[in-house]
Every structure is written in C-alpha cells, then in structure tokens.
Amino acid sequence: MAAEDLPSEFDVVIVGTGLTESVVAAACSRAGQKVLHLDTRSYYASKWASFTFNALLTWIKEHQEQSDSNEVHDWSGLLREGEEPICLLNADSASIRNLQVFCSTSEEEEEDEEEEEEVHCCVEEEESCAESKEQTADERQSEKKEESCAESTEQTAHEQQMEKEEESCAESTEQLVDMQHNKEEEEEEGAHAEKEEPAPPRRQETANQSEPSRKKLTYAHLLKEGRRFNIDLISKLMYARGSLVELLIKSNVSRYAEFKNVTRILTYRHGNVEQVPCSRADVFASRQLTMVEKRKLMRFLASCLEEREDELEVYSGRPYLEFLRDQQLGDNLEHFLLYSIAMATEHTHTPAGLASTRHFLRCLGRYGNTPFLFPVYGLGEIPQCFCRMCAVFGGVYCLRHPISCLLLDKSANRCTTLIDGHGQRITCSHFVLEDNYLPVHLKNQATPTRSISRGVLITDRSILPGDKDQVSLVTIPPAEAGLPAVRMVELSPSTMTCAPGTYLVHLTCQSLLGSAYDDLSPVVTRMFNATQPHDQGRRPGVLWSFYFNMDVAAATTEADGDRLPSNVYVCSGPDSELGHEHAIKQAESIFHKIVPDQDFCPPAPNPEDILYDAEDTPYDAGERDEDEEATQG
C-alpha cells in the first residue's frame, strides 16, 4: 500500500518484518486485530532475509556505503499536550558490520579462454585455406580449361564487353569453387584420420570420455545465474518436532511453503569429512564404527530417552563431555555425541547436553533420517509465509516506509501514536518493534550484546560428494583450545538456493577474533581450496565468499521490562542457536500480552472456505456457522 493511502488508526502497529514480528502480525490479524505492518527496508524478513546473488551484491554495497547517523526530524508541531517523542533508529545502522567479499574466479578468465580458442580456430582455418589455395593453383596450371578461365578473367577485368568470355569465366569459376570445396573436405577428412596430436578445443568433448572435465564457473556465470541463488543472512534449520514446525502445521501456514529433508549429518575429524550415524539404520550401516561401538551407541541413545533424574543430580554442575567419558563409549562415540548430536562444546553442562541429545533423538524419523528440514528457496520464505497469512486476514503492509518516532503519554506510560517519515500520525493501542529500531537508552543494558561470525561460500562441488544432491549439516570442532566450534550447512541445487553445478555453504560461529573473516578463514583454508577454485583436487573450490558479523540475541533474552512503555513490545531478532525456539516462544509471549484471551495462531481455513462480510473482513466459514447457531438459539 502507498504511504499516502495509509489509514490513521490501527489496533496493532508492527515495525520490522523479521520472523518474530511476522508471527505476531499473523497471530494478531487471525485474532481479529487491525494490523499495520511496516518496514523501512525494501525487502521482507530483515535479518532473516534471503537474497538472490545480484540482490545480495546490491545489499552489500548499500551496507558498506551507509553511515551510522540517523536523520532526526522536528515534528514538534505535531505534538500535543503531555506527549513526549521517542525517536527510533535506523534498523541496520550497526548490527551488521565487517563486511568482506572475496572472488576467486574472474570474468577475464572466461574471456581469455574464449579469445584463445577463437585465435586457435582462426589459425587452423587460415592454414587449411592456404593449403587449399596452393593445391588449387597447381591444378589450374595443369588444366587448359582453367588457364582459359584465368585469361578470360583478366580480359574481363579490362574489357567488359566480351560476353562469351564472361560466360566461359563464370562456368570455369563455378567449377573451381566446387573443386576447391571438394578438395578442402578431402583434406579435412585426411587430416582428421592422420593427425596424432590432440583435436582443437571445440572438438575436445569426445576426446576424454573416461575423465569428464568439470566446467569452469566464472564470476560472469554467477551473475548470469544470479536469480537461481537464494542466500540467507542467518543460517538455521528446522527441527522436525520443533516449535516452528509445530506452529506451521497448527496454523496451516505450511501450505505456503515447501521443505526439503536435511539428508545427512557430517563431522570434520582428523582432516577428513565423515558421516555421523544418527538413526538406527545409519548406525548399523556405518563402516566407521565397530560392532561393539554400534551396540554401545544404541544402548546409550535408548537410555537418554528415559530421563533419569539421578544422573542429572550427580552431573548437574559437570561438563557433558565428562558424563560421556564416564559411560566408557570411546573417542569415536564421544566425538559424534558431543559435537554432532548434542551440538555442544566441551564446556556445556550435562543437563543441557542431555536435553539437546533428547531433542535430536525425538525429532528423528518424523520426515527422514535426520531431525532437520530446510525451506525450499531459503529461510527468508518463512517470515513471508506468516506475512501472507496476516494479509489474508486484513493486515496492511508497507515496505520502504520511513518512521520517525513514537509519542509517549507520560501520565499513562503508554505510547499512543507513531509518526512516520512523512509526518503522518498513526494512532494505535499496541506497538511491536524490532530491537534495532529501539533507542539505546530503552534497551536492556543488563544483557550483553552477542555477535556471531557468518560466512557464505559458493563452491564448485560438495564437501563430501555422493550419488545424489545432498543437504548436509557439518560440525567442525575447534582446532585448538580457545577457538570457536563452527557450524556448516551445505545446500545443494535441489533446495533452489544455488545454481546447478554449484553448492551454497553457510558457516556460523561465535565471534571471538574481531571479524568474521578472522574467525572462519582458518576453517575455509583447511576444508576448501579458496585460491584455485578449478583445481581438480580433493577439496571443493571456492568461487565466491562473503563474511560479516551480526549482532544476535541471547537465547534467554527477555526484551521487555520496566524501561519500556506498557504497550510497547520488542522482538530481539535471531539468536545463535540452530533452531527457532527462541523466536517462536517470544512471538507467543508478545501475542498473549496483546490479546490474552485468544488462541495463538489457530488453524487458518483453506482459501475456498473463507467468507467475507460487508467490511471485507475474512473469517472461517465454520465460525460463521457457529455464530448463526448461537443467534438462532
């Protein structure tokens, strides 16, 4: 909707289109609230967004050029008695930083290869043409008819009035052309049969059928295929029995998206990438475990699901690694369980490690051999699905909409109005804000800002090639004490996030060394070939890479408090965990503060079951029937 067409009164105004804000918008709209959903950005999902390759390049350029200053408007003329302005910030002014881009392939490389190929072909054509001309000249000297034609041609050049000689020359010239053409074909066939050296580049396709050569992908190719990429800013997966999947099913929003199984869990150990056996079938099919280890692993996994309280009491303050060692599982199983199944560290306490292990096991088998799903076209699809549900039930959307401030009624400690960048007053009962819009003095200073390091790689092949397109979660333990563990998600073209012939790799870890490149480049150097992407070695080649740091919420962050007006709620954005539990829990909490007596995201009706009243407000046909029965009763 255009800015000048916005109504001036709403029940709920939501600023920011991240996952938490979008779920709140959908839930409030479904509950009958009049919702206005704004964002100053030109795209949906804020930090949860997915970009095509070309759009990501534009986004990177904008972030590198933007300043941290926030333009302040003087709307004092719009203030009324007792109102105090709370100025809102530029959403992305400082939460994403240290952007670094590296390209290991170039457009010039492709152009040089094409020019070299064209020159090679032209030289061969000229040599062949020269040989044909020499042989044709010899033939002309030995044939009287051709001598007559040559003389006729010379006479015709000086005396154009002799018709008979012109006709004779024309006939002879046609014969020469035919002879020359036939001679060239014979020479080509003879050369093809007798030539022992390699064929020209354009005919090299059939030369080495036993060793198919991989096509060299260049930067120009990435740009050309840019729309086939969908690159996430935040890297997460969906637990098959996690809160997000349950909400998608409950609300019927799942019909707006498609999902792929994460097909395998991998780990990096002793310089090699290994598959982690996590399901019963994987355990007994594994070649990395002995029969004794397989039995130990199955017994341990079965015991984890029993939730014995005595073990939790004994190990409550002790590391999970110590608990695993006391089970006498061996180094192999300890590594798999700690890093790949519990996705913990050496310092994780036993209760948290066991809880993570149980959650992993309970999610196994619901949709595949691993506990995880991934949305086709990228993680940015999920917030947009909830925005679509909000719009179906009357929510109003406006992107690229500047905002200025909230007006606080100091006597009631409530915000009553939003003033946008155009000076329009929009009154509202409840306000929901992405945390990046909130002024510093209203943020919870007791919770320290956490930062993650993110890396995005476009590679030319999989980290562990298989017989089909795989979607992989890879855990990379720290190489030495003090360094962070790295989580890697490798996406194949089957997820519609990268072009055919490429893979999209997401790297995530806690920020320790200052910049994302400093944190992640050692891992990239060990596992990938970042300098020679087309080298046919064991390691995948990196065609293009992008590093940045992002501020994230702690998993236990409580965004609201006494510092905020009573009707203002803040969404803290994505956290550093693999799943979406924090975002969905926070969205449900905010919804119940706004509409305490309503169900959170009840099932939405199918489109054919939606009825509209005179005010174009949609609601379920089943609800209409219940209302009619109550009226008749």
Task: Describe what this molecule looks like in 3D.
With 633 residues, this protein is an alpha+beta fold. Among the domains are: 3-96 and 378-447 and 554-632, FAD/NAD(P)-binding domain (3-Layer(bba) Sandwich), CATH 3.50.50; 279-364, Orthogonal Bundle (Guanine Nucleotide Dissociation Inhibitor, domain 1). Helices cover 36% and strands 20% of the residues. The protein has helices at 19-30, 53-65, 107-142, 144-158, 163-194, 219-224, 243-251, 280-285, 291-304, 309-314, 320-326, 331-341, 350-363, 381-392, 516-527, 581-594, 621-632; strands at 9-15, 35-38, 50-51, 83-87, 96-103, 231-232, 238-239, 259-261, 264-269, 272-275, 372-375, 396-398, 403-409, 414-420, 425-434, 450-459, 472-476, 486-491, 503-510, 542-552, 568-571, 610-612, 618-620. Strands 1, 2, 4, 12, 13, 14, 15 and 21 form an 8-stranded mixed β-sheet that branches. Helix 1 runs parallel beside helix 16, helix 3 packs across helix 5 (163-194) and helix 11 (320-326) crosses helix 13 (350-363). The radius of gyration is 34 Å and the shape is globular. Residues 109-123, 142-212 and 624-628 have low confidence and may be disordered.
CATH class annotation of the domain at 3-96 and 378-447 and 554-632: Alpha Beta
Separation of the first and last Cα atoms = 42 Å
The CATH superfamily of the domain at 3-96 and 378-447 and 554-632 is FAD/NAD(P)-binding domain
Secondary structural class: alpha+beta
